[in-house]
Specification:
Blueprint (H helix, E strand, L loop, with lengths): L26 E5 L3 H13 L3 E4 H12 L6 H16 L4 E4 L5 H12 L3 E3 L2 H6 L1
Parallel strand pairs: 1-2, 1-3, 3-4
């Protein structure tokens, strides 16, 4: 490479222009008992430019590999709950999906204690 060659082109072809984010990208943990609703909302959050997370995406493989009973209280205490707390340390907020869920309520409490945003509807999460 000589001194005349540049790494940057003065003209950028339209198909290579970087895509700008139309909104602030947020990493949002979905918490609740209705996995199907959480997955559907995850897709909508992703399509809106956000990064959705569900603890189940991580805890299921870990529980399976741990040798613990996947539905047992020990698995919840050793894997599921600590994993949710660790994910929250990297998230911008929580979307609490309806229906009774002690672990979902616990994630909301932890998020509030950390000063994170808590959303109760998809619209709230999308509006920011």
């Amino acid at each position: 490479m000589n001194s005349q060659t540049s790494f940057r082109s003065t003209q950028t072809r339209p198909e290579f222009q970087p895509m700008l984010q139309p909104t602030e990208m947020r990493m949002i943990l979905l918490a609740g008992a209705d996995i199907t609703s959480m997955e559907e909302m995850s897709v909508q959050l992703f399509r809106a430019g956000h990064m959705p997370l569900m603890g189940e995406w991580f805890s299921e493989p870990l529980a399976s590999l741990s040798g613990l009973d996947r539905a047992g209280e020990e698995t919840f205490n050793q894997i599921v709950h600590p994993l949710g707390e660790r994910l929250l340390s990297r998230c911008d907020g929580v979307l609490r999906v309806g229906g009774p869920s002690a672990s979902g309520d616990a994630m909301v409490a932890i998020a509030r204690a950390r000063g994170l945003r808590v959303f109760f509807t998809l619209k709230e999460a999308l509006d920011g």
